[in-house]
C-alpha cells in the first residue's frame, strides 16, 4: 500500500484482511447491538409494567401482551 | 466479519421468532384464551361480591387492542423482536469469545445459545415460572419485575463464573473433573440464590391483600378459589352465599401446567433454532461459501469476501 514511499527497498505487501475494521469500531458496533437488543428485550418484556419510558400509556404492554406472558416475563 | 456475524445472528433469531409464532398460534393461544375466560368470570364475580359487601370494586384493565390483534400480530411482534434480539446477542457473544476456546465456530455458537437458554430463561423460570393471563397481581408488578430481572442477571453472571471456574480448574484437573466441580459449585450458589429470593405469595403487598375477596395466603399469586370470607351471608343475584362457601373455583391446574410446559418448549424452540441457523449461516460465511475441510473452518477471514462499506 505505502510501498512506493520507500523507493528501492519496498516493504512487502502486507496482507491486511479486507474484513478487518478497527478495534474502536468493533467496540462501537458491539455496544450498539447490545443496546438495541436490550432495548428490544425491555420493550417486549418490561415496559409499561414495572417501569415505563413513554409515560403511563398501556399501548406497548397491550400490543405485546400475549408474548410477554408466553416468554415468561412477569405480567398481569 | 463482526457486522456480518451480527446480522446473521439477528436473522437466525428472526427465523426462530417466526417458528415460535407458529408454535404459539397452535399451542399457546387456546390456553391463553381459557385463562382470559377464567379471568373475566373471576373479575365479574369479584365485582359483585365486593359490591354486595360494600367494599371497593377494582377497575377493569384497559382494552386498547382486541383479542384478535393481541393473539396474532401482537404476539408475533413480541416473539420475533425478542428472538431477533437474542440472536443478535448470541452473535455478539460469539464475536467476543471466538478464538478463546478450541472448538469449531458452530459448536461455540451452540454452547453460547445453550447458555443463553439457561441464563435468560430456564434458571429464572425455575424460581419465577411463566404465568398465563389471570395470574399476577397488578399491585405487585414492580416487585415482580425487579425479582425476575434480578434472577435473569444473576443466572447469567453465575453461568459465566461457572465457565470461568471450570477453565481455571482445568489447568490442574481433567476436563471432566473441572466441569463436574464447577457444576456443583454453580448449583450450590444457585440453590442459595433461589432460596434467598422471596416466593411471590410472601411479598408484603400480597400478605396485606390476603383479607380481600379472592385473595388468600398462598405461596404464589395463582388465583385461589373465591370464598365468602365474611361471617355473614351475602346475596348475589338473589342467591344467598353462606360464610366460607366457594363462589368461584381457583385457577385450573391443567391450564397452568399446559401454559408453562408450552412456554418452556417455545423457548427451547427459539434457542435451538438460533443455535442451528446461526451456526450454519456463520460457518457458511466463514468458509466463504467454498468447500473447505473441517480443520480449516477457523474464523479466519476469507480474502474473497467483499469489503464492507466503511
Can you offer a commentary on this structure?
The complex is a heterodimer of chains A (about 80) and B (about 300). Chain A has one domain (about 5-70). Chain A has 3 helices and no strands. The termini of chain A are far apart. The radius of gyration of chain A is 24 Å and the shape is elongated. In chain A, about 45% of the residues lie in helices and about 0% in strands. With about 300 residues, chain B is mainly alpha-helical. Chain B has a domain at about 1-135 and about 250-310. Chain B has helices at about 1-50, 65-95, 105-125, 140-170, 175-195, 205-210, 255-285, and strands at about 225, 235, 240, 245-250. A two-stranded antiparallel ribbon of chain B has the order 1-4. A two-stranded antiparallel sheet of chain B has the order 2-3. The longest helix of chain B has about 50 residues, at about 1-50. Chain B: Keywords: Membrane, Transmembrane, Transmembrane helix. Chain B: This is CbtA family protein. Chain B: InterPro entries: CbtA_put. Chain B: Pfam families: CbtA.
Amino acid at each position: 500500500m505505502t510501498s512506493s514511499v520507500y523507493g528501492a527497498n519496498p516493504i512487502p505487501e502486507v496482507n491486511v484482511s479486507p474484513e478487518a475494521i478497527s478495534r474502536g469500531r468493533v467496540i462501537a458496533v458491539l455496544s450498539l447491538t447490545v443496546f438495541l437488543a436490550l432495548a428490544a428485550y425491555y420493550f417486549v418484556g418490561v415496559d409499561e409494567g414495572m417501569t415505563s419510558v413513554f409515560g403511563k400509556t398501556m399501548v406497548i404492554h397491550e400490543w405485546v401482551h400475549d408474548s410477554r406472558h408466553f416468554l415468561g416475563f412477569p405480567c398481569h | 466479519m463482526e457486522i456480518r456475524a451480527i446480522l446473521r445472528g439477528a436473522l437466525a433469531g428472526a427465523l426462530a421468532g417466526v417458528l415460535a409464532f407458529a408454535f404459539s398460534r397452535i399451542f399457546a393461544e387456546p390456553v391463553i384464551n381459557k385463562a382470559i375466560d377464567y379471568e373475566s368470570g373471576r373479575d365479574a364475580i369479584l365485582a359483585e361480591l365486593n359490591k354486595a359487601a360494600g367494599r371497593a370494586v377494582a377497575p377493569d384493565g384497559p382494552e386498547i387492542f382486541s383479542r384478535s390483534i393481541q393473539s396474532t400480530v401482537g404476539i408475533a411482534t413480541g416473539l420475533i423482536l425478542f428472538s431477533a434480539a437474542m440472536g443478535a446477542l448470541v452473535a455478539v457473544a460469539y464475536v467476543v469469545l471466538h478464538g478463546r476456546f478450541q472448538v469449531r465456530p458452530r459448536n461455540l455458537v451452540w454452547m453460547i445459545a445453550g447458555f443463553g437458554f439457561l441464563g435468560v430463561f430456564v434458571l429464572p423460570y425455575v424460581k419465577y415460572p411463566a404465568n398465563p393471563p389471570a395470574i399476577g397481581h397488578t399491585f405487585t408488578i414492580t416487585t415482580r419485575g425487579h425479582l425476575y430481572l434480578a434472577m435473569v442477571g444473576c443466572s447469567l453472571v453465575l453461568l459465566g463464573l461457572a465457565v470461568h471456574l471450570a477453565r481455571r480448574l482445568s489447568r490442574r484437573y481433567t476436563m471432566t473433573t473441572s466441569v463436574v466441580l464447577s457444576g456443583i459449585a454453580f448449583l450450590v450458589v444457585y440453590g442459595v440464590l433461589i432460596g434467598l429470593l422471596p416466593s411471590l405469595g410472601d411479598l408484603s403487598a400480597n400478605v396485606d391483600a390476603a383479607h380481600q375477596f379472592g385473595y388468600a395466603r398462598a405461596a404464589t399469586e395463582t388465583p385461589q378459589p373465591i370464598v365468602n370470607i365474611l361471617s355473614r351471608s351475602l346475596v348475589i343475584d338473589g342467591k344467598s352465599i353462606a360464610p366460607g362457601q366457594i363462589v368461584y373455583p381457583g385457577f385450573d391446574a391443567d391450564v397452568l401446567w399446559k401454559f408453562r410446559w408450552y412456554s418452556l418448549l417455545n423457548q427451547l424452540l427459539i434457542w435451538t433454532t438460533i443455535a442451528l441457523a446461526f451456526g450454519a449461516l456463520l460457518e457458511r460465511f466463514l468458509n466463504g461459501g467454498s468447500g473447505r475441510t473441517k480443520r480449516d473452518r477457523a474464523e479466519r477471514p476469507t480474502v474473497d469476501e467483499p469489503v464492507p462499506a466503511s
